[in-house]
Specification:
The structure is a single chain. With about 775 residues, the protein is of the alpha/beta class. The chain is built from 28 helices and 23 strands. The chain folds into six domains: about 70 residues; about 110 residues, Beta Barrel (OB fold (Dihydrolipoamide Acetyltransferase, E2P)); about 120 residues, no CATH class; about 80 residues; about 35 residues, no CATH class; about 240 residues, Metallo-beta-lactamase, Chain A, CATH 3.60.15.10. Helix content is about 45%, strand content about 15%. It has an eight-stranded mixed beta sheet. The chain has a seven-stranded mixed beta sheet with strand order 15-16-17-18-19-20-21. It has a five-stranded mixed barrel with strand order 1-2-3-5-4.
């Protein structure tokens, strides 16, 4: 079954990599050849034939489920305008001081699953208390699923598709927003979880780590503080802080062992029903209940399936090979939800289980403590390739952190949290508070140790793999290095690992430059690379929620390009969408020099940018054309304007300059302005891109950095028509995602959204 499950997985994975739901002619030909092979080889090579059958079934199953989801897309007529809808709140709402985020299942005038935000627009009002199961009439504005599309960045669109969410949006202020009926009439899993959360809130608010304890009881991590979450992330222990597959397996395993131990004390009972069978029933039941309390989320549901396969094999006395059980669990998880292949958790959980199966069979002659430490270290080193692949970073202190944290969570915090919850609901509040306090104190002491590990300068190791070939080599090298000594293969790990450094790269040549306009929505961020130098021009926005583009887009991109140091950072001006991500960049990279038109807004050593500044890197000329020190320009018009040129081509980076500065530049730098590529001033606003300026620059290409369906309606239709009238090609980040332009003797352009297209991602036509 293991081989068949793998082929089922390969079929699903292959379909997930397609850029269209349609089956191409070439694919039909390949499938026809596979089907013919199945018929020819079925009698003599049954395993091969069945493997091909499962491969085709996986491909078809992923296609069927994907088509179902995409065929329920909301009609365009309901998008991008206020619309009154009725429906029901599902899952637990997440409320902060600024807003409440919730999942809304719309029933009329359309059906769909929406991810909505209800903002606190005024300081004297707040959003109503929303409860799962409540039916509402809401005035909302929604749009297509959209996310930033950049190298190594988090793919929000893929995540929304994985969650089967049809659109995102927000609730508009309106007297029409009314609760139709509350959830008291019905009972659901999420309502039970919500009741538990509200009931425990008064007790857990008194505990420093109350948010973590809440997450371990009901799987709701919304109450975990930013500080604690950052600590767990820095030490790679986030998987312990909320109900996950590990916790389901741990609790059900402990229940299994405890019941088996107690049952064996009665010889009579053991003769009637063997202890392992009874214990398996209890283990299965506890896994089900814990998964239920966690809301049957996708990760916990996956863990429940895996646990069920093991316990049912004991109940029905089916003595399968452990890898057969692994294959059955893998097949059932994918059959239940083929979209799991789009989840990081799926790959990590099944990968870790495979490592545990392998590791548990090693060093069986050693003591249990030696084997436990070996297994923990094995998991940390073996998962290093996937951790780097998915997160572009790893904690070097992670093995030590997990070696300490896993026992604390497993044998103290989790059991005490669940016992405390049971005591609370049986009316023993004082005892419950005492138990919660002990669990909290255990986390306090653990946090002190984790904070010390976090302080080590070498803790965070940043690296990025951008090729599946690199990932394959890395995993292969790790497993060969950890192979049994008797196989005498360990020496091969070094040359295989060395192949990672022999992977062909394409260095930038002398006199050439690569200018990358990152997709930061309604903001600006460019990375200019020459053969030996890096410049960052603007850093995107930072939002009140704490989310910022420096952390979510720019840093991951630079890590993926193996960039650790920036020779120059230019902040064109102090608008949030240009300077917002700077603090994150300052924290993560060594910066030689910062230039800005508003140095007083930056808490670091800054040189004021002004006309006349220039430098040459690797045969490429950089020139600041504006602002001039004699002219008192303010706001957008004071933006730093940078021209970058080699012997044949040039690009003009303009920040948010408007017609006043454009006129000044056209009058004083007419010859200097001429450029092959123009970064559209002020995101294509109607206040910029004047005809006199475009005529002076005479670009063949304009790049516009603007957000999808942004509230400013950038780029302006008049400006787009002006570009068209001047025969200028236009590329927009909202359609192209990250845009890379390599200036050599010729110009090579890459568009990330087009080059990495998937059938579930938003596509649009450049206009």
């Amino acid at each position: 079954m293991f081989i068949y499950a793998l082929n089922f997985l390969f079929g699903i994975l292959l379909f997930s990599l397609k850029n269209t739901l349609l089956i191409t002619v070439l694919e039909w030909l390949v499938f026809s050849a596979i089907i013919l092979t199945i018929f020819i080889s079925f009698k003599r090579y049954k395993v091969i034939a069945l493997s091909l059958v499962f491969f085709l079934l996986g491909f078809a199953w992923m296609g069927f489920i994907s088509a179902q989801i995409l065929n329920t897309q909301i009609k365009e007529s309901y998008l991008d305008k206020p619309i009154l809808v009725t429906g029901k709140i599902v899952e637990l709402p997440k409320k902060t001081s600024r807003n409440t985020k919730f999942i809304f299942k719309a029933h009329a005038p359309f059906k769909g699953k929406l991810k909505l935000t209800w903002y606190n627009y005024y300081s004297d009002t707040s959003t109503p208390n929303l409860h799962t199961g409540d039916s509402w009439q809401l005035l909302i504005k929604i749009k297509h699923n959209n996310g930033y599309q950049n190298l190594s960045g988090f793919d929000y669109e893929k995540w929304l598709f994985y969650k089967r969410i049809n659109a995102t949006g927000y609730v508009r202020t309106s007297p029409s927003n009314q609760r139709i009926d509350n959830a008291n009439q019905t009972l659901s899993i999420d309502q039970i979880r919500q009741t538990i959360r509200y009931s425990l809130s008064t007790v857990l608010e008194q505990q420093e780590f109350g948010g973590v304890i809440n997450a371990l009881i009901i799987g709701d991590r919304s109450l975990i503080s930013t500080k604690h979450w950052a600590l767990f992330q820095a030490t790679n222990t986030t998987h312990l802080s909320v109900i996950s597959g590990l916790h389901i397996g741990l609790i059900s395993g402990l229940v299994f062992l405890l019941v088996q131990f107690l049952w064996r004390y009665s010889l009579r009972l053991s003769l009637i029903i063997p202890a392992p069978i009874v214990a398996a029933f209890f283990g299965l039941g506890s896994a089900f209940l814990y998964t239920l309390i966690a809301g049957f989320s996708i990760p916990t549901g996956r863990a429940f399936i895996m646990a069920s396969v093991l316990f049912l094999s004991i109940i029905f006395k089916r003595h399968h090979n452990i890898w057969q059980l692994y294959g059955i669990a893998l097949f059932l998880v994918l059959l239940n939800n083929p979209l799991s292949v789009l989840s990081v958790g799926f790959w990590l959980s099944f990968y870790v289980v495979a490592v545990i199966i392998y590791g548990s069979k090693q060093h069986q002659e050693k003591s249990w403590l030696y084997r436990l430490i070996y297994l923990q270290l094995l998991i940390n080193f073996a998962t290093l390739p996937l951790t780097i692949w998915f997160f572009s970073t790893s904690s070097i202190a992670s093995p030590i952190a997990n070696l300490l944290a896993i026992p604390v969570f497993s044998f103290a915090v989790i059991p005490l949290s669940l016992i405390g919850a049971l005591l609370h609901f049986t009316g023993l509040d004082l005892v419950a508070e005492m138990v919660f306090s002990i669990a909290n104190q255990a986390l306090v002491y653990l946090a002190i140790i984790l904070e010390q590990l976090q302080q080590f300068e070498f803790n965070q190791w940043h690296y990025s793999q951008t090729s599946l070939v690199d990932l394959t080599f890395f995993i292969l090298a790790i497993f060969i290095a950890l192979s049994p000594k008797g196989l005498k293969l360990r020496w091969l790990s070094a040359p295989i690992l060395g192949l990672l450094f022999l992977t062909p790269n394409h260095p930038i040549k002398h006199n050439s430059m690569l200018v990358t306009t990152l997709d930061v929505g309604q903001g600006l961020a460019h990375v200019v690379q020459t053969s030996n130098h890096i410049l960052l021009f603007d850093t995107g926005a930072k939002y009140a929620s704490g989310f910022n583009l420096g952390d979510s887009v720019i840093t991951p991109y630079l890590r993926a390009k193996h960039i650790q140091r920036l020779d120059k950072v230019i902040i064109s001006h102090s608008d949030n969408d240009h300077i917002g991500g700077l603090n994150n960049i300052l924290q993560n990279f060594d910066i030689t020099e910062i230039l800005s038109s508003t140095p007083e807004k930056i808490q670091a050593k800054v040189t004021k940018c002004q006309t006349g500044q220039s430098w040459i890197w690797d045969g490429v000329l950089f020139e600041i054309l504006s602002p001039h020190k004699k002219y008192k320009l303010t706001g957008n018009n004071a933006s730093c304007v940078l021209k970058v040129s080699n012997k044949k081509h040039s690009i003009l980076l303009t920040g948010d300059i408007e017609k006043e500065t454009e006129r000044y530049l056209a009058q004083n730098f007419k010859e200097k302005l001429k450029s092959t590529v123009l970064i559209s001033p002020h995101h294509g606003s109607k206040t910029s891109s004047s005809q006199v300026f475009l005529k002076a620059v005479s670009p063949t290409l304009v790049v516009i950095s603007s957000g999808f369906k942004n509230r400013f309606h950038h780029p302006n239709k008049t400006i787009m028509q002006r570009y068209k009238t001047n025969n200028i090609k236009v590329l927009q980040t909202q359609c192209s995602g990250q845009i890379g332009i390599l200036f050599n003797h010729t110009i090579n352009i890459t568009e990330y959204r087009k080059d990495s297209a998937r059938y579930y991602l938003r596509q649009c036509n450049q206009k």
